[in-house]
From TrEMBL:
The protein's name: Sugar ABC transporter permease
Matching PANTHER family: ABC TRANSPORTER PERMEASE PROTEIN (PTHR30193), INNER MEMBRANE ABC TRANSPORTER PERMEASE PROTEIN YCJO (PTHR30193:SF37)
Keyword terms: Cell membrane, Membrane, Transmembrane, Transmembrane helix, Transport
CDD domains per the UniProt record, alphabetical: TM_PBP2
Claim: NAD is one of the keywords in the record: no
Protein family (similarity comment): Belongs to the binding-protein-dependent transport system permease family.
Recorded coiled-coil stretches: none
ABC transmembrane type-1 domain span: 68-280
Any matching Pfam family: BPD_transp_1
TM annotation in the entry: 12-36, 72-93, 105-124, 153-178, 199-221, 259-279
Native organism taxonomy: Bacteria, Bacillati, Bacillota, Bacilli, Bacillales
């Protein structure tokens, strides 16, 4: 056998498991979602072709509008705050001894089951006997609010949980970016008399911008996929104040068995995330700087 052909066969053999997994668990479901979005199908009866009717229903559906509004608000709450806190922690740990140990502690919530995290925080934020309200009363003499039943506070409460859980992941990414910045830049700036503050704004942030772009894109995508915390902690309530897009998809598909309408809403969510990602990539040309 030709050596080049043999190498190609072995190469395809090694990547075959990944390709099969990508095909079975990603590409086929993606194409199926687009197909089902044009059908009236409950999972059992014969599908009926509806064209774009499911999409028009989605945009006129008050639940869809509420879910999209809540998801956008949740994204605004979590993305900037999560990125800022992760950057702050990464900068603080960059030159600290036992950095690996601290990184482990911050990363532990990331690998912890989201359901377990939601249950723990559900008890912590309980308005009657939760630990957060107990501490507020004992330390500050303040009666704590009803975190998970107040219409104004339920989404910020879920945002706090998500920021806490994802802090370690973003922090590790920022920490890797910081360690990739050459010390020559800082040594040269010190010779020129630059202060620590000037070094951060003129060297660290510009050279960390590629990492910031990646973290921002991932954070935006994750914020639009929120489901587990809302499902476990609030069940989309109260009065659908924490009713998110993925929760909306879940209700349509697995409670109402309206797979066509659920797939149409999923396609809309996919398009929104795609547009936001492309927009972030385009805008990044103005503020992302790559070291030469």
């Amino acid at each position: 056998m030709n050596p080049k052909r043999a190498n190609a066969i072995w190469g395809f053999a090694f990547i075959a498991p990944q390709l099969i997994g990508l095909l079975v668990f990603s590409l086929i479901p993606l194409i199926s979602t687009f197909v089902i979005s044009s059908l009236d199908w409950d999972g059992f009866s014969t599908p009926k072709f509806l064209g774009l009717e499911n999409f028009t229903y989605a945009f006129r559906n008050p639940d869809f509008q509420k879910a999209m509004t809540n998801t956008l608000y949740y994204s605004v709450l979590t993305v900037p705050a999560g990125i800022f806190l992760a950057l702050l922690v990464a900068v603080a740990l960059n030159n600290v001894r036992l950095r690996i140990m601290y990184r482990l502690f911050f990363f532990m919530p990331v690998v912890t089951s989201s359901v377990a995290v939601a249950i723990v925080w559900m008890w912590l934020l309980n308005g009657d006997f939760g630990l957060v309200n107990v501490l507020l009363k004992q330390l500050f003499g303040v009666k704590g609010p009803q975190w998970l039943t107040d219409l104004r506070l339920v989404l910020p409460s879920l945002a706090i949980v998500s920021i806490w859980k994802g802090l370690g992941f973003n922090m590790v990414l920022f920490l890797a970016g910081l360690q990739g910045i050459s010390k020559d830049y800082y040594e040269a700036s010190m010779i020129d008399g630059a202060t620590k503050n000037q070094q951060f704004w003129r060297i660290t942030l510009p050279l960390l911008s590629p990492t910031t772009l990646f973290v921002t894109i991932i954070a935006v995508i994750d914020s639009f996929k929120v489901f587990d915390t809302a499902f476990v902690m609030t069940s989309g309530g109260p009065a659908k104040a924490s009713y998110t897009m993925v929760y909306h998809l879940y209700e349509l598909a697995f409670k109402n068995f309206q797979f066509g309408r659920s797939s149409a809403a999923a396609v809309v969510l996919f398009v929104v995330i795609l547009v936001l990602t492309i927009l972030q990539t385009r805008l990044s040309r103005k503020w992302v700087h790559y070291a030469e």
